[in-house]
């Protein structure tokens, strides 16, 4: 069996070049590949196109790479928590493609499934539709959207085995599973790395066939983006 286990995040991202297209899993600050982001910061790779639901915050997640000007383009859905992202967007320093959240998820899923395009009603009649083909089905207008694929997909899971089979925990099972299928090389960082055969096959969310590299991460902050409590 192919040895997919690497020592750490630095080894996992060692061959990511300048101008690469990356998918980074997570929703807000939940389920993000914290260790790999730190390794990319240290590596200093530039000109990245990052596909992620959001752009982190100013001092955490992808926001750290924006701060160091490592990101050339963001393909995202929700970006409202990052002041540096806003500044770079308004100044023209950062290229941005904003996509409805469901469309983003489906474009990534399509990339993993080998489906080059699909039709959706989301975005019809808005700026999202500019330059895109539309068709009418059953009297309703739909917009054609294309797949999204990446040179590297970087995901975060709760538990994984040495063959790359992954289990996500709670809401961290967000964009990670679909991104894991859509990268030429998928890198998985996990909180717990276990021997092959330790996971219940019925509980596996991402089969190891999609994963090329896996390592056990450490020192996860698991920040909460917006803490809301109920007053009694």
TrEMBL record:
Determine if Transferase is one of this entry's keywords.
yes
Q: Does the keyword Transferase apply?
A: yes
Q: Which PROSITE patterns match?
A: COA_TRANSF_1 (PS01273)
Q: Which GO terms describe its molecular function?
A: transferase activity
Q: Which domain of life is it from?
A: Bacteria
Q: Which UniProt keywords apply?
A: Transferase
PANTHER family per the record?
ACETATE COA-TRANSFERASE SUBUNIT ALPHA, KETOACID-COENZYME A TRANSFERASE
Recorded family membership: Belongs to the 3-oxoacid CoA-transferase subunit A family.
Name of this protein: CoA transferase subunit A
Biological source species? Shiella aurantiaca
């Amino acid at each position: 069996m192919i040895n997919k286990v690497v020592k750490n995040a630095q080894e996992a991202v060692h061959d990511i070049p300048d101008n690469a297209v990356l998918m980074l899993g997570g929703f807000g600050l939940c389920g993000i590949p914290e260790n790999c982001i730190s390794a990319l910061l240290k590596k200093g790779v530039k000109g990245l196109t990052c596909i992620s639901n959001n752009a982190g915050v100013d001092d955490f997640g992808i926001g750290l790479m924006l701060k160091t000007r490592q990101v050339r383009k963001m393909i995202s859905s929700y970006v409202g928590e990052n002041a540096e992202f806003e500044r770079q967007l308004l100044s023209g320093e950062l290229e941005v493609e904003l996509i409805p959240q469901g469309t983003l998820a489906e474009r990534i899923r399509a990339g993993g499934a080998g489906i080059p395009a699909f039709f959706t009603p989301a975005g019809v009649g808005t700026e999202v539709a500019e330059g895109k083909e539309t068709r009418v089905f059953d009297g309703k207008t739909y917009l054609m959207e294309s797949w999204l694929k990446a040179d590297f997909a970087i995901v975060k899971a709760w538990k994984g085995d040495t063959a790359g089979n992954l289990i996500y925990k709670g809401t961290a099972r967000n964009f990670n599973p679909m991104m894991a299928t859509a990268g030429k090389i998928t890198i998985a960082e996990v909180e717990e790395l276990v021997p092959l055969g330790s996971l219940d096959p019925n509980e596996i969310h991402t089969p190891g066939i999609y994963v090329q590299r896996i390592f056990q991460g450490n020192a996860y902050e698991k920040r909460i983006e917006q803490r809301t409590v109920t007053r009694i």
